[in-house]
Amino acid sequence: MKRFFFLLIVSSLFFSNCKEFEFEGPKNVNPDPTETKVTLNFSSSNDGEKSFKVISGETLTGDSQYYFSFWLSPSKGDSIALGTWLVKDSSNNIIYQSSAIENGIDIKFPRNGKYYMEVSGNIPSVFIFNNIKIVVGKTTDPPPPPATATSPVRLYNLKLKEDGSATVEVAISKAEYQEHSSKNWFYVRRTDNTGWSTNNAVVSETDSIRFTLTFSNTDDSYIEFNAAYDDGSTGGIWLKPSIGNPPSILYSGAENTPYGGSGSFFGFRIKRISSTQMELRTYSGILLLSTGGSTPAPIPGNNGDGLADNFQIRWSGYTHFFKTTSTSPTFRYKIGSTGTWTFLTATQLTSNSSYFQVEIPTGTSGQLRFQFGTGTGTNFVPANSEMSNSMYWENTTGELVKNI
Questions:
Q1: For residue range 311-326, what is the model confidence (pLDDT) as tens digits?
Q2: Which of 82, 153, 187, 404 is least surrounded by CB atoms within 10 angstroms?
Q3: Which are the contacts of 367, defined by CB distance < 8 A and separation ≥ 6?
Q4: How far is the C-alpha of 113 from the C-alpha of 105, rounded, in Å?
């Protein structure tokens, strides 16, 4: 019996001493991006080296005149990181939201101010980056408005869905009735003078409203819409599409063209190219947006210009691709408008001979200005006709510009 109690005491001491080595499981079930294989990347001259890999809760800055490029690593190879991106302004309005998982985004903020970004996913491993604040400020004068302005309307983010329907994002300025900005705003619409719809909900901001139009990819259909505010009268007070000198190109040009009352609407016509490709054009035929259709395979890079921009510039992390007809192109870049040009060697892709590839040095930070063309040094001749296809194009300087 004494031997039994002795063994019992020894066993108790042994297991009590081992307790500190027991695995108790994770204390925080939320995934920590610093402990995964996925990293979020962005750099700005105001943020220094720490911002090359962004962490949750970080603050970034940049110039609102140019695109901001964000990407997840790994950004190329057989296991590209993919996630869902969400960007909101300080009033909690959605500025950008992924419709499908993607490696990176280019985003041009609509105005100065504070924005918040989150990106999460599980490819190649679970990750989340959240509460990232982006302080946007303009440091240079904006370029002059185009001669054929759609103002006060902006159409963007045209998407064609598998069921044959399409969507386009719409932003309309309240400037004409800015003194009534706080009223209840809504939008109205019709298609080919049918399907009249009013009092449709919008996201109402201080100086504009935002909403999404949904329609079918039906050739020659004419979509008409307008914004209005509720003053207590039937139908409310509408914006005047004919206002301005010249008026918006989304105004058909006559009160009853093409339908009765068309002078009270902004409008665009659908040009159906195929079941997977379409264009939006003005009543007079000016191209506004396009999407879908076949593209060269494979398109280098995971981010950058789209079909409407001729896929002119593509990028994947610090690797950049540009499309050119030149047989021996040259490429140069600098940081900021007062930086010094540096030339990089361009290599033609064997998988897609329309593109050449360059490697922007890892850690390059700030307002990236770049050009491609022919020659070097003082003999460099930029390929303006090709570069102007890109969404990064700055007409006043003849340079491609983005925040990196």
A1: 899 999 899 999 999 9
A2: 82
A3: 45, 62, 63, 66, 335, 336, 337, 401, 402, 403
A4: 19
